[in-house]
Amino acid sequence: MPPFDSTSAQLILWAVIGYGLGSIPFGMILAKVMGLGNLRDIGSGNIGATNVLRTGNKSAAALTLLFDGGKGAAAVLVARAFAGEDAVQIAALAAFVGHCFPVWLGFKGGKGVATFLGIWLALAWPVGVACCLTWLVGAALSRISSMGALCAAAGSTLWAVGLGYGTNLILGIVLTLLVYWRHSANISRIRAGTEPKIGSKN
């Protein structure tokens, strides 16, 4: 953990800023703007890139992935530009929570994978790159997006310690636990062999 030098008021401010950035539902916005319908009525009903891909629009899915990752990265980079590392980690966690529980959607958001990766890429880019590669390998071998996400989340803390970013360990553990919690239904389907493959309409 970094030293907590910021005041409580400053940390609360960065938590609000991080949450505000993270809660922007880019998947819903892009689907509406691009005439793809309501994501709640498509596939899993999730607002993330994997479900956007189920509309058949790869461009929309790629943009959702980019923007959802970007808002996590933005929370880290903005906080780092104006505050200490304690505020950076608070803003990062709040951005993730904002994506998963956006006030604009009745606190029913996405599962946070793209935002998780964006956070790590901005927080410690070698760890972020390692997590992205872990996701790619896990998803490619299993043909299951959620499996890639679970592999990336599980590996993130190991990468953080192994690559010399141990001050992010506690944040990494919390983010990993949140990713697994948000994927509890996916984990059950993976065990049952019913989890949809990448590109599936279901």
Task: Kindly provide the radius of gyration, computed on alpha-carbon positions and rounded to a whole number of angstroms.
Answer: 16 Å
Q: Count of DSSP helices?
A: 10
Order of helices and strands: HHHHHHHHHH
Task: Calculate the terminal CA-CA distance, rounded to whole Å.
Answer: 41 Å
What is the helix content? Answer: 55-70%
Query: What is the total tally of β strands?
Result: 0
Residues in β-strands, percent: under 5%
* Average pLDDT figure: 90
Which structural class fits the helix and strand makeup? mainly alpha
What is the 3D form? Answer: globular
**Main sheet characteristics:** none
* Uncertain residue segments: none
Description:
This protein has 202 residues and is mostly helical. It has helices at residues 8-22, 26-33, 49-53, 58-82, 85-100, 113-123, 125-142, 145-162, 169-182, 184-192. The longest helix is centred in the middle third of the chain and has 25 residues, at 58-82. The protein is globular and about 45 Å long. The mean pLDDT is 90.
Which terms summarize this structure?
0% strand; globular; 10 helices; 202 residues; mainly alpha
Structure, briefly:
The protein has 202 residues and is an all-alpha fold.
Topology:
Elements (H helix, E strand, L loop, with lengths): L7 H15 L3 H8 L15 H5 L4 H25 L2 H16 L12 H11 L1 H18 L2 H18 L6 H14 L1 H9 L10
